[in-house]
What does this fold into?
Amino acid sequence: MRDWVVDGCLFAGALTYCALWALVLRDDPATPDGALLVEVVLTVVGCALLWFRRRWPLALALVLLPLSTYSILADGAMLVALFTLAVHRRPLPSLVVGGVGVLGTAGFMLALWPHDGNTAFVLALTAVGTAGVVGWGFFVRHRRQLILSLRERASRAEAEAELRAERAQREAREDLAREMHDVLGHRLSLLSVHAGALEYRRSMSTEDVTRTAGVLRATAHQALQDLREVIGILRAPVGELPQPTFADGAALVEESRQAGMTVRSRTDVTGPVPDGLGRTAYRIVQEGLTNARRHAPGAQVRVTVAGGAGDGLTVEVDNTAPTATVDVTPGSGRGLAGLTERVALVGGRLYHGPDTAGGFSLHAWLPWPP
It folds into this structure.
């Protein structure tokens, strides 16, 4: 719609220019009526061709060039065609057509009126008008290209922002999945151990059964609390899961002992452990104890944490070969893989695998800046 309005205005402007000069030349005795009529008809045809100026700008300018050189009535249509050429094509065709038009007008006027005093003024006015129209067209072309470039940059920036948002959401989901595995997997493994004890130890006293059932109830309650926290984070637009600290590792070991595991723990750490480093160490110990409960029932577990600022923090969880077979709930298989990613994110190293005695070793080194 906008193009139709612009084309209509330019067409009307060219016709108005033609009509005004026709009125002026009508009273000029040097202009025959028949010649004026021919010029008017040709100029009107040239103005009608302006409707095709966007499709064939160079061809239209070349058609109107000899007409405007011969008749001043067609100068309005020629300026519109020259402006369109400057907007839609490279600068060279516009400069060539504009220059040829000025030179053609000069040659035509000098040939007909070599001694007319107004010739120089008319030629100067023609050159200035042509240069102004071409310059205006160059400005519009440059502005359009600039706007197009800005739009492309904005579209690219928007696409990149969407990719960053998707990447951030994916990383957040992966982080949350690791937290869910670490927290709920630990609780559920405790439930599995105690439930297995109730199932296989038929000779337990009433007091032991009551105590084990109490531990099951407390562990299940804590698992539900952890699950509520996870679901709350999923529902809330902003938030984080409560994160453990290095000091919580002692409670983690004690909890495993209460579940019937034989755990020896040694901590030799110099200075306060940073929160991020302590949280990673906690998750390593948690994963090691959880795997030992699941896959090595009855084994002896050794937990060693040592290090200091500048030397790094070493975390080791080793267990001997299992002494019993317990049907435990299978895990997701992503625990050690997620732990490897977690350690790699902080710039540490992780080793895990069976030893020659049938046990399993989980060793990690974490950087601790001085």
About this structure: The first strand starts at residue 262 and ends at 270.
